[in-house]
Amino acid sequence: MEIWWLRHAMPSVDPDVPSSDWPLSADGLAAAAALRPLPPPGATLLASPEPKAWQTLETYAGRTCARDARLREVDRDEPFGRGFRERRRAYVDGADHPGWEPRAAVAARLQATVDDGIAAAEPDGVLVLGTHGMALTVWLTSIGLLDDPGAFWAGLGFPTLLRLAADPGSAQPPATRVRWLG
Questions:
Q1: Which of 100, 114, 142, 150 could form a disulfide with 107 if both were Cys (CB 3.0 to 4.6 A apart)?
Q2: Nearest to 55 by CA among 163, 159, 162
Q3: Rounded Cα gap, residues 159 and 8, in angstroms
Q4: What pLDDT digit, counting tens, does each position of 19-60 carry?
Q5: Using one digit for the tens of pLDDT, what is the confidence trace for 91-106?
Q6: pTM, entire model
Q7: CA atoms within 13 A on the CB side of 126
């Protein structure tokens, strides 16, 4: 089984609209459409309900996807403006910010989505999950795949596709049954 994580493309940023409601920009739509490799026709597609995430996945895959609120970005009380990159990097590196969702809760909800997605997908199939940079970084860190979460997060593009292999039948913890494909 393969798990493909798709970090959303560039949204259309509007300081008067919550970031969870931002749609993709024209450049983001073009970047999502150009992303390769395409998922196989039978792949299971799940995305965050945030427009930038599901629009990225649907544009990339060329078909509609199911939405799962557990794939949303980190819940947080974050003012718009300067310093957001530093706050976000500190969070993925382990800093606790008042009003921000605990990393353990983020990791648990993404892991539950992975587990449910694997159960619903074909045994040798592909599960494609459309999500967000901080949430993805927290999950990858929680299963032991990242040594430097802040550098990983800072290096993510808009969009980024990560391919992992998983052994869903294993009784081992997630970190020992998931590996990078590319």
A1: 142
A2: 159
A3: 5
A4: 999 999 999 999 999 999 999 999 999 999 999 999 999 999
A5: 999 999 999 999 999 9
A6: 0.93
A7: 18
Which DSSP string do the residues of the chain spell out, in sequence order?
Answer: -EEEEEE---B---TTS-GGG--B-HHHHHHHHH-SSPPPTT-EEEE-SSHHHHHHHHHHHTS--EE-GGGSPPP----SSTTHHHHHHHHHTT---TTS--HHHHHHHHHHHHHHHHHHS-TT-EEEEEE-HHHHHHHHHHTT--S-HHHHHHH--SSEEEEEEE-TT--S-HHHHEEE--
Burial class of 125 by CB neighbour count within 10 A (0 to 12, 13 to 18, 19+): middle
Longest dimension (CA), the chain: 47
In sequence order, the β-bridge partners of residue 179 are 165
